[in-house]
Design goal:
Blueprint lengths: L2 H20 L25 H4 L4 H5 L7 H4 L7 E5 L5 H10 L4 E6 L2 H14 L4 E5 L12 E7 L8 H11 E14 L5 H4 L2 H5 L6 E2 H11 L2 E10 L2 H8 L6 H8 L3 E9 L3
């Protein structure tokens, strides 16, 4: 499938997710919209204390696979960029961590998600936040303008991950940090999963193999690269994220047992 076609499908899927939240429903990372808690990818990521002061719509729109704001060790006064910011939950949490002297940018290509995120910002009363429309392959910020790049289960959706990582490297200041949550693969993946666009949009099939992720980061210029598993998906999880995909879940579940994981991927731009 052509990159632009895939991008349009992703945009459509996540636009629909935003509209479901706006109308009082819940969003879901996976292919089957009936999965109430979006298990196993997106459930139980944030502590109750973290989200207690956020708008319910920001929490409902969470489509991530980790909590990069907690793991990135954000500091007061820093400037943070969230690639694929969705409903804005990680941007709002980042804004709280960097404080009034810092700033948090959210970048998203989906109009419906941007509208939802800006509404959530107004409800939260947060002023050190700006949501930008654009693509993670072409970030609308100048070179060396941010201290930290975060992202939550979005880079795997891009068909041009080398470009995404090059853009992250470009906008970071010297010594800046790349700190993202993403779905990562260990070992070979059955071709049926790679061919499934629904699973790609559902943040599974586009995932990089761990060694390939490390190599791409190094190729972009990053150093101090680390991939830390935060949740490894087992057979029962595989049945859940294959449900509704058109793939025989029972036939393929054991082939993916333990191969998919949510991971915290970190790296640094040299000083």
């Amino acid at each position: 499938m052509a990159d632009e076609k895939l991008k349009e499908l992703v945009k459509e899927k996540y636009g629909q997710a935003a509209l479901r939240v706006t109308s009082g429903g819940s969003s879901c990372c996976g292919a089957a919209p009936s999965r109430g808690e979006c298990d196993p990818i997106t459930s139980n990521i944030y502590a109750t204390g973290e989200t207690a002061e956020l708008p319910a719509e920001a929490v409902a729109a969470s489509l991530g696979c980790g909590n990069p704001t907690a793991l990135a060790e954000l500091r007061p006064g820093e400037t943070v960029l969230d690639l694929g910011s969705g409903g804005g939950i990680d941007v709002l949490l980042s804004a709280r961590r960097v404080g009034p002297a810092g700033k948090a940018y959210g970048l998203d290509m989906t109009d419906e998600m941007l509208a939802l995120a800006r509404a959530n910002q107004r409800k939260a009363g947060v002023t050190n936040v700006e949501f930008l429309k654009g693509e993670i392959e072409n970030v609308p910020l100048p070179d060396g303008s941010v201290d930290v790049v975060i992202s939550n289960c979005v880079i795997n959706l891009s068909a041009d991950k080398d470009r995404v990582l090059a853009e992250a490297f470009r906008v970071l200041k010297p010594g800046g940090r790349f700190a993202v949550s993403d779905v990562v693969v260990r070992g070979a993946v059955p071709p049926a999963i790679r061919r499934s666009v629904e699973l790609w949009i559902g943040c599974v099939a586009g995932a990089l193999e761990e060694r390939e992720y490390r190599d791409k980061l190094a190729g972009a210029g990053f150093e101090a690269i680390d991939v830390e598993p935060t949740r490894v998906y087992r057979v029962d999880d595989a049945r859940e994220f294959l449900a509704g995909s058109g793939i025989d879940a029972d036939a393929i579940a054991r082939e993916v047992d333990g191969k998919f994981m949510s991971a915290f991927v970190r790296a640094r731009k040299p000083r």
